[in-house]
Design brief:
With 92 residues, this protein is of the alpha+beta class. The chain has one domain. Helix content is 29%, strand content 18%. The chain has 2 helices and 2 strands; from the N terminus they run αββα.
Length: 92
């Protein structure tokens, strides 16, 4: 995947491998602002009742362009994977 410049803060479809992301379902937001993840999506993602999901948003030019869900338990690992090498480099 190509490296993003500091100014480019949103996902770019040209940089995402085709096997990375797929559209699995369309959901609709109801009048209360709620939506339902289809059962098939929950099962494939291993999401069960009571699981916590982090809402991750990407912005470009001040507008939210992408919204994603990440299992809360995996956030720490993602941060460690991204920041670990940077922190090691700072202290070396």
């Amino acid at each position: 995947m190509a490296r993003k410049s500091p100014k480019q803060i949103c996902c770019d479809a040209r940089e995402v491998p085709r096997s990375c992301c797929t559209v699995e379902a369309l959901v609709q937001v109801d009048h209360r602002g709620q939506m339902v993840l289809p059962k098939e999506v929950r099962e494939r993602a291993g999401i069960a009742a009571g699981d916590k999901l982090a809402v991750v948003m990407w912005e470009k030019a001040g507008n939210v362009c992408c919204i994603g869900l990440v299992k809360a338990g995996e956030i720490g690992e993602m941060v460690r994977d991204r920041l670990g090498p940077v922190i090691r480099e700072i202290f070396e």
